[in-house]
Every structure is written in C-alpha cells, then in structure tokens.
Amino acid sequence: MTTTASTPAVADDDEPARPQDPGDPFDRDVLPTPPGATAALLRSLLAPMKGRTALTTSLLLLQQAVVQAGPLLVAYAIDTAVPAFREHRHGPLIAVAVGYLLCALASGLLQFAFIESSARVSQDVLLDLRGRIFRHAQALSVDFHERYTSGRLISRSTTDVESLRELLEEGLQELVTVVLSFVYISAMLLWLDPGLGAVAVASFVPLYLLVRVYRRRAQRVFRARSTAIAAVIVKFVETMNGIRPVRAFRREAANDADFAVLNERHERVNGDSLLEMARYVVGSRLVANTAVAAIVLWGAHRVVSGSLELGVLAAAVLYLRRLYDPIDRLGMFLNSYQSAAASLEKIAGLLAQTPSVPEPVRPRELPPLKNEFPGREVVFDGVRFGYRTGGEVLPRFDLTLPAGQTVAVVGTTGAGKSTLAKLLARFYDPSAGRVLLDGVDLRELAVPELRRGVVMVTQEAFLFSGTVADNIAIGRPDAGREEIEQAAKAIGAHEFISALPDGYDTDVRKRGGRISAGQRQLVAFARALLADPAVLILDEATSSLDIPGERAVQRAMSTVLRGRTAVVIAHRLSTVEVADRVLVMEHGRIVEDGRPAELIAGTGRFADLHRAWRDSLA
Description:
By secondary structure, the chain is of the alpha/beta class. The protein folds into 2 domains: 35-351, Up-down Bundle (ABC transporter transmembrane region fold); 378-617, P-loop containing nucleotide triphosphate hydrolases (Rossmann fold, 3-Layer(aba) Sandwich). It contains 20 helices and 10 strands. The strands form 2 sheets. The chain has a 6-stranded mixed beta sheet, sandwiched between helices. It has a 4-stranded antiparallel beta sheet with strand order 2-1-4-5, with helices on one face. A hairpin with a 5-residue loop joins strand 1 and strand 2. It is elongated and about 120 Å long. It starts with 36 loop residues before the first helix and ends with a helix. 35% of the residues are buried. It is a multi-pass membrane protein. InterPro entries: AAA+_ATPase, ABC1_TM_dom, ABC1_TM_sf, ABC_transporter-like_ATP-bd, ABC_transporter-like_CS, P-loop_NTPase, Type_1_exporter. Residues 1-32 are annotated as: Disordered. Residues 378-612 form the ABC transporter domain. Belongs to the ABC transporter superfamily. Lipid exporter (TC 3.A.1.106) family.
C-alpha cells in the first residue's frame, strides 16, 4: 500500500517547530476577544445574582443616606439647638445627640450587612469564573494546549481572577460611594444654599477631566502590568517543570538572568501604575482644597454680612469634605477597574476559544461488536493532515486495520507516526478524508463514546497525585477494588503494588514520582486494561525504559492487546515482536507493509532497521 510523496515533517513527534510569528495570537498574552465578549461575560456572571445584587445596592443606598444626615444635624445644632440650650431649653440639643448616635449605629449595622452581602456576591462570582476557566481549559483541544502555555492559563485563573476580586469587593463600593455622595451632597448643598451648591457642583468639571485623563493613561499601564506578571508566571512554571534539565545543564544562571529581565519589567510597569496614581491624587487634592478654600472664604464673607447662617456654612464645609474625600478613593477604584478590565478581557478571550475538535451535533453510537473480541475495524479513508504552522505531514493516506489486529508503525522521526496516532485518538481532525471506527466517522462520535472505544498509552505514563488504585480507576471510575486488583494482576503489577507501604492505597505523589518509570508504565497499562477499549494506541510506550522494565511492560502488552485492535508506535524494534503486521513510514506515507518475519527476510527499509538494531545489541 503506497501513497504519494509529501512535504517532510521537520520536528520531533511529527509536528513542525512553531515559528515565532508576531501575528500568531498564541505568541501574545492576550487572545483575540470578540467584540462585546467581555461585557457579555460580566453579565452572565452577575445574572444569577440579580436579587442579591439589588439587596446589596439597597443596603449601600440606605447606609449613605444615614451617613449624609450628620452635617444636617450639625447645622441644626449650631443654628437652633445651641441657642435653645443657652435659653435653658435642652430638648433640641439632646435630640441632636440622640439622632447623631442613632445615625452612627444605623450606619455601622448597614455597613456590616452591606459588606457581608457584597462579599457573598463577589465570592460566588469568582467561584463561577474559576470553574468556567477550569472546565473550558479542559474542553479545549490538544492543539490549543500545545500552543498556549500552562503558565498563562495559571495566570488567567489566579492573578486575573484576583484582580476581579479586588474590583468586586473593594472598587465597586468606592465607586458607588462616590456617586451616591455626589448625588446626595449636591442635592443637600443646593437645598441648603443654591449659591454654595452651584460652586461645589462647578468644581466637579476639572475633577471629571482629571479622571478622564487618568483613566486613559491607566488603561495602557494596567494592560502592560497584566502581561508582565503573566510572563513572570510562565517563566517560573517552565523552569520548575524543567528543573531536572536545568540542573543537569547548569541553566540556573541563565534562567536567573532571563527571570531578572521579566521581573524588572514587571517592577517597571508597577512603578508606572503607582506614578499615574500619584499624579491623579495630587491633582484631585489640589482641585478639592482650592474649591473648599474658595467656598469657606466666600461663605465667611456672607456670614459676616448676615446673608448666610453659620450652621449652614459649617454643614456645607462638612459636606464638601465628605464630597472630596472619596475622590482619592475613586482613584483606587479606577486602579482596580483598569486592572480588572484588562484581566477580564484576557479571560473573555480565553473563554471565547472554541475546540478545534468539536462535539458532533447529532452523535452516533458504535454498532454492536461483530465477534467475541473487543477489537473494531479502523479505516483511514483519503486522510490529509498538516499542522497549522508547518507543511502537510500526511498527504492522501489510506489504511485499513482489521478488527483485532496489532500493527506496529516504525520509521524515522518526523515520518508521521505520532500524527497517525493523534488522528486515531481524535486529538486532531483530518483536514480532508475520514477516520472510521467500524464504519463510523470519529467526528460523529460523542467524546465519551469515543474515549470508551479508543485509549492511548503514551511514552510518559502520567500519574495524578493520589493513590495507585485511584490512578488505575481512571480507566473506569465506577470500577470496584476487586476489578482494579484483577486488572493489575493481569498486567503483572500486583506484586510491586502490594510491596508499596500502603499497597493500592499508597499515594504516588506528584506525577507518580514515588515509583519507577517502568512501574508507572505498568499502572498505565492496568488503567488501559480496566477501560477495556476496542482500540489501543501505544505511542512509544517502552522507549524510556531499561531492559528489565521493557520486558515487564512487553509481558503486560501481550495481555492488554489480546483481541483488540492496536497501533503500536515503536522506536525500539523489540516492541515489534508483539505485532501481527508492520508498517514502515517515510514522509507521511507507507513504504513497507507486511508481517514482521517477511519484512525481516526481505531487503527493504525494515530489514535494514532490524539489522542495525541487532548489531547494536551485539
């Protein structure tokens, strides 16, 4: 079986190395965000909490109304209660004192209720958002995770969510307080004295212009700050994940220098944000103090002339201080807002990404098995495929694997072996043609149905933190302990598992670091056997093992592969011994196809590879 020539792959695992294309959104921290996606995300987060949001707003409205009654009581005390007290009428002054105490008490209780209610709303929003990010990241296709770093995902779910928390828990209260203060106090000043009120309202024009300038400048700064901290996290995660090669090749000094550059950039943009904040605070205080000074001088002149009562002037000054004091806090809100807006934009861009391998609109089920064995027929029908950053890895590719047949696929690096496995596992969809499982296109199978039918065991047997039993049960979560142990016994893993400190309940720790590579691979095979798939893909499952470990895994393979359709990607030709058929691939096409003994006896590529392998063992 042959195919036409194709452009050769140029990197390990068949995928061409991704060039640093500045136009590629995956090379930037911010993924493209559709218009309106950020606002839609915020609405969807707040929609389930309309009732609690309304209650929280009502509590703040009441609290501000109570707080703003204080200066009126002061004005009444100066102009009415104190003169009455001089005439030995104590009632008005007592009423003022009791009223002030009641306002203070009511303000404290309402503030407590507001903080509790707003905290519940914000925490529920953040809980929902973190869950969405985690679920969506898992649902995105493998090609997304191969191109968008895990450090950036961590930054989205930690630093960016934390920015939103600061806005919800602190910034919004400051904004609402400023707005309500402006409305209440402007109305009170205009009611107390229209002239003073008009001057106070006019002073907001330069403050408004100052806020506009600050917001525009801060927006650029906070976008840069969010990108800078993401770069720091990416570098940190990358270094810690690769700590072994870092130590082996003495990369500590070079990594430290690279990290220092990123860290200094983060420090610089943080300094820029603080500088912008300082400019805003100085400007706002200058405007506010100038306005207060002008009103005090004008008001004092009117008091002397008898056109303004002293209590009204005192109340106006108190109101002005209450009006201008939150202006500084408005700067803090704008800080929180710009930071949260930049973060929410990035989160919205992430959530707007769609899987390149979508769920079918009308999923089909696999037909009943045709025989007593679990294997199913696999057909590659006119398949073409190329990675988005490289040439075509598989030109027109046709292949039929009968049910129950074990096929070994060999060839040089970049020949298309791993691409073949990824298409069969539907980590990618072909750009043309179909991959069929018992006559059903993989694109028509729901993901759970596909994962029950096709399982892959990779070169690195990834184990999650947890017990050995938990890791085996990933193959079938509803399996009981007896079924888990039976799968381990069939693979030959029961003996070493039983010898662990807590047997099947032993915590394997991060990435299974508590057990050896060969033992991890045996656990992975037990997991695959428990899943009982129709098609099993072994992608270089023994290439990282020593000779004893490889022999143990090969014995396990003979158990797992029995009766199943299997595709074995092999670099070590010892793995081919379990195969019924061998395919030799070059440049995305099959150049040899036959039984192992027939190809070894011939004069083709596989015979040369096998001869070289035998010589290496001598």
